[in-house]
Amino acid sequence: MSIKCWPASERPRERLLKQGAAALSDAELLAIFLRTGSARASAIEMARTMIGEFGSLFDLLNASQEQLLACHGMGDAKVAHLMAALEMGRRYVGHQLQQHHQLNEPALVKQYFSQQLRHEPREVFAAMFLDSQLRLIQFEKIFYGSITQCSVHIREIMRLALTHRAVNLIVAHNHPDAPAQPSPADRQLTLQLMQACQLLDIRLVDHVIVGQDMVLSFAEQGYMPV
User: Fold this and answer.
1) What would the DSSP string read from start to end of 35-64?
2) Short-list 52, 212, 214, CA closest to 120
3) Which end of the chain is more exposed for a tag (fewer CB within 10 A), N or C?
4) Up-side HSE of residue 104: CA atoms within 13 Å toward CB?
5) Contact 190, 223 (CB under 8 A)
């Protein structure tokens, strides 16, 4: 049955406007973005099926464009709506951090990097350049690699830190196809970065790894070199 035939009190869009977005289930929120269903299913039935196929709304939203297009009833327009919504969310969080927040809590840092890097299909090395109050000056994705590795040039990171007049630095990279477990190379890079930062009177605050299973903070785990 089409959602239009449902009682107004049960339709996702009407419920959102009356009760707020928090009152809706994952499938109902997704159905609002899908807007319409297919010949075989309503938008909310499509949403439930897609969430079931991917395992969760989180995994669905981290799916690639090709994976989304492979779902029954999904075309370019629906995929574009989802991708645009995700990008708006990332930009909103980035603007909030830049305007208001001190990045002095590993949980907040992990959340931001997760939103920025989890969807990347290959390894990406990124950095937050911060002022003396740990407020975000600039976020940049600096180096791009393959699915298993990424070459990082410390000199370029330091050049960008000086360009942005950063006093504090937080770096991160993702493991697209592996857990968030630091390798010996990750630990060595962190040590080399810290040594380079010390020469320029910049503090390396944290190194974050965004993995398939979780997001790991070196600072939170006590892995930062002394």
Assistant:
1) -S--SSS-HHHHHHHHHHHHSSHHHHHTS-
2) 212
3) C
4) 8
5) yes
| Angle formed at CA 212 by CA 210 and CA 214, multiple of 5 degrees | 60
Q: Which strands make up the sheet holding 136-144, listed edge to edge?
A: 136-144, 124-130, 168-174, 203-210, 215-217
Rounded-to-integer distance, Cα 177 and Cα 123, Å? 9
Q: What are 113's two structure tokens?
A: 């990097």
Each residue's pLDDT tens digit, 82-122: 888 888 877 776 676 666 567 777 888 898 898 889 888 89
Beta-carbon contacts of 156 under 8 Å, excluding residues fewer than 6 positions away, are: 142, 143
The pLDDT of residue 169 = 97
Domain boundaries, the chain: 3-90, 103-221
- Cα–Cα nearest to 97, from 119, 120, 113, 117: 113
- Of 202 and 71, the structure prediction assigns the larger pLDDT to 202
Higher pLDDT, 158 or 104: 158
End-to-end CA gap in the chain? 63
Phi, psi dihedrals of residue 74, rounded to the nearest 5°: -95, 125
Helix (H, G, I), strand (E, B) or coil at 170: strand
d(CA 72, CA 164): 46
Looking at residue 201, what DSSP letter applies?
Answer: T
